[in-house]
Amino acid sequence: MNALASPRGKASHTKRIAGALILGLGMVGGFQAPAMARGPESVADIASELLDSVVNVSTSQTVTGSRSTPAPQLPDGSPFQDFFDEFFNQKQDNGQPRPRRVQSLGSGFVIDSSGIIVTNNHVIEGADEITANFADGTKLTATLIGHDEKTDLAVLKVNPEKPLKALKFGDSDKLRVGDWVMAIGNPFGLGGTVTVGIVSARNRDINSGPYDNFIQTDASINRGNSGGPLFNMDGEIIGINTAIISPTGGSIGIGFAIPSSTAINVIDQLRQYGETRRGWLGVRIQEVTDDIAESLAMKDASGALVAGVTDAGPAAEAGIEPGDVILKFDGKPVAAMHELPRLVADEPVGKEVEVLVLRKGKEQSIKVKLGRLEEAETVAAVTDQPPEDQPAEPAPVSGPLGLSLADLSPTLRSQFGIKDEVKGVVVTDVADGSPAADKRLQPGDVILEISQEPVKSPDDVAARIEQLKTDGRKSALLLLANKDGDLRFVAVTIGD
């Protein structure tokens, strides 16, 4: 299985990227390839201008805990016994493991001549000491201005004796697949390493966070390259190297960089506030699959389906409802679900934006004043165990889609642990191999709507399914609630 890692010089969290470039492609089948197809003749002039602004970031931190490596078995009376006992079983007088220093390496780059440096958050995470090592041998102690886990960015400050040479950001939105790019970093502690490759893909979602929008490149990046810059051929920063896919920990030419279009706003906020201040819409969303698109009579599977709306949040106050499909946000198309969080986060808190939604087959424009995304996460204790004393279950009604359904009575609420505020038709059983079983419906799920029409009884469910059959629909969009009231949409195939 491929591993997603970060190219930092720390075994527990390493990200790498790799690739190879063959320059000077000659005659192919009697055809002389254009000069740009053969790649740049040299990047020496560009590299020489940039090398002094790329730094090695070294960190150290104190950790406590026993070593995971067991001590070797030595013969009785071995002269090395005392040495290994001290090395592998470092205990204080109170029996607790002695603190030890752990070091790691990464990369970074100067964006302000006064001493502002950008790197990855995971490079400096948990560090007690941070040092920026420059190409001329200068070592400066760095302090942390701010960091952001969601985009894996951090901003540092050093105090140089003279102004530093700062790099400039370029526009990553202008990148095209196949464009040449250059990386400079500190792979395996080898500072000032230059590699060249191309943009392999754009807008990659690698499931590393809510704002994934990575540039994929085959420019060679390895352990220690984390936080280093990715340049275009004009010497502008268009990405910050942060992750690779690798089955063995070695470089295989699949690496990812945070695009400058994402990084610039985050870096500005970290410099100004020491933290991020992102826009907040207040919705829970899910992907619009082909089945869901068909059930909503949509031509294409695009947009973000609203599965839930936060009470008293910006979306709720503006009138956005579960079942709405967000097609555009502030004039920008939402081609896929994962694009919406990034679009919202990039907007300033308090801004009024226009949101275009599809509601029951009709487009509707809604104006929303964005709130501020709260960083704190609320963790609720959830138990999957039903009460010990379960009242007798009333006879269920055999329904469509392979479901057995019943009115949501106090008896069934108690049996499945369903909260009082949840209203609808409860699923009491799911037939094996049925369309509902294929979509992982389970007893205790509560059906609130079918294809955006509310249902209150098993008869309502059956009637709604029959109407969809008459209308020629191939699937039914179910709005389901779990026992705690959390909502989700599921498109279930309608059988004959």
Question: Key features?
Answer:
elongated, Pdz3 Domain, Thrombin, subunit H, 7-stranded antiparallel sheet, 496 residues, alpha+beta, 3 domains, 10 helices
Structure, explained:
This protein has helices at residues 44-50, 81-88, 121-124, 260-273, 290-295, 314-318, 339-345, 410-416, 435-438, 458-470; strands spanning 3-5, 27-28, 31-32, 54-63, 100-112, 116-119, 129-133, 139-148, 153-157, 180-185, 193-204, 214-217, 229-231, 237-246, 255-259, 279-280, 283-287, 304-309, 325-329, 332-333, 352-359, 362-369, 371-372, 397-398, 403-407, 425-430, 446-450, 453-454, 475-481, 487-493. With 496 residues, it is α+β, with helices and mostly antiparallel strands. The protein has three domains: 1-19 and 41-68 and 76-276, Thrombin, subunit H; 280-372, PDZ domain (Pdz3 Domain), CATH 2.30.42.10; 397-493, Pdz3 Domain (Roll), CATH 2.30.42.10. The strands form six sheets. Strands 24, 25, 26, 27, 28, 29 and 30 form a seven-stranded antiparallel β-sheet that branches. A six-stranded antiparallel β-barrel has the order 10-11-12-15-14-13. The chain has a six-stranded antiparallel barrel with strand order 4-5-6-9-8-7. The longest helix is centred in the middle third of the chain and has 14 residues, at 260-273. Mean pLDDT is 81; it is low at 10-31 and 375-396.
